Amino acid sequence: MLWQRLITGPLLIALILGVVWLDASLDATADARGLPHGLVLFAFACGLSVLIAREVAAFLRGADLPASMFACVTAALLGILGTALSALLPTGVGVSGALATAIALMLVIALLRMSRDRDPKGSLALVGGTLLAGVYGGVFLGFWMLVRLEHSPWVLVGAILTTKSCDIGAYFTGMSIGRHKMIPWLSPKKSWEGLAGGVVTATLVGAGLASLSARCELPADQIPVWVGALGGALVAVIGQAGDLAESAFKRDSGLKDSGRILPGMGGVLDVLDSPLFTGPVVYWLLRLTAA
Predict the structure, then answer these.
(1) pTM of the shown model
(2) C-alpha distances in Å from residue 108, one per residue of 38, 84, 103, 115, 117
(3) Domain-wise residue ranges, the chain
(4) Is the dihedral of CA 107, 108, 114, 120 positive or negative?
(5) Mean pLDDT over residues 272-282, rounded?
(6) What is the pLDDT of residues 211-222, one digit of tens each?
(7) What is the tens place of the pLDDT at every residue in 55-90?
(8) How does pLDDT run across 182-217, given as a tens digit for each residue?
(9) Residue 175: which residues within 8 A CB-CB, separation 6 or more?
(10) Cα separation of 248 and 254, whole Å?
(11) Euclidean distance between CA atoms 264 and 78, whole angstroms
(12) Quick one: three-class SS letters along the chain?
């Protein structure tokens, strides 16, 4: 309901801004003690990881597929730990080993959960669903933590705002001039005109936020305008793919929302479906354009 959204939205924004402010304020302390940046944000992301994994498990069960809540949550935590902590290892071999170990442990956890029931039926679906939870709830969030290790948390806020601005632009453009349906069998309300409006909006927002980043103290946080514009266009398209992917999961499972934890908005995945997909894009764009 609209009144619930009007209450949940500001509270959610206040929570995120509070976490980001606290995380940024501890950077000096972390430097003095030789600790990595982003510990507060990492703890918050681990909490999100658990919630996302639970919602993925609910999707699987809604589609009559075997799913273990414990295996999904464990796989998600392994995914974010393996991805984020791999950046702290000194060699490329160590990084590859950390990620490979996390993925292997996801598989082992699923197989152990299957063996507890002493019934191999549905084991392939159980393993596949567990790995899905590991990627959705862990690896995707881990990319955002990789960005945090090299930038202030406000860069993450800007990237997420740019991603979500596409949804706003797409909604109003689609409502105004949307005529040609994009994927009617999956998301009947989305139109090509709406997508174009979303891409334009995100491109402008990305360029605008990048221009403001020139005031940041850290050189790593000063994003060129052309990078912001390019990033806006990329996250707009990839973010919509994430939205469509969750729509497919909801249709397959017969669920209207991924959860009920956020009144008026649904579940965590209903809010983060597009930012989750854009994490790898933001990470690689900033890495490749860092020079």
Answers:
(1) 0.92
(2) 29, 21, 9, 10, 15
(3) 36-150, 152-291
(4) positive
(5) 94
(6) 999 898 889 899
(7) 999 999 999 998 999 999 999 999 999 988 887 776
(8) 888 888 888 999 999 999 999 999 999 999 998 988
(9) 194
(10) 10
(11) 31
(12) CHHHHHHHHHHHHHHHHHHHHHHHHCHHHHHHHCCCCCHHHHHHHHHHHHHHHHHHHHHHHHCCCCCCHHHHHHHHHHHHHHHHHHCCCCCHHHHHHHHHHHHHHHHHHHHHHHHHHCCCCCHHHHHHHHHHHHHHHHHHHHHHHHHHHHCCHHHHHHHHHHHHHHHHHHHHHHHHHCCCEEECCCEEEEEHHHHHHHHHHHHHHHHHHHHHHHHCCCHHHCCCHHHHHHHHHHHHHHHHHHHHHHHHHHHHHCCCCCCCCECCCECHHHHHHHHHHHHHHHHHHHHHCCC
Sequence-distant (≥ 6) Cβ neighbours of residue 254 within 8 angstroms? 62, 63
Look-up of token digits 């994430």: 242
Contact 58, 253 (CB under 8 A): yes
One-letter amino acid at 13 equals I
Q: Which token pair is 141?
A: 């969030």
Assigned token pair, 19: 């976490």
* Partners of residue 183 on adjacent β-strands: 187
Residue with tokens 């606290």: 22
- Sign of the dihedral defined by the CA atoms of residues 180, 182, 184, 190, in that order: negative
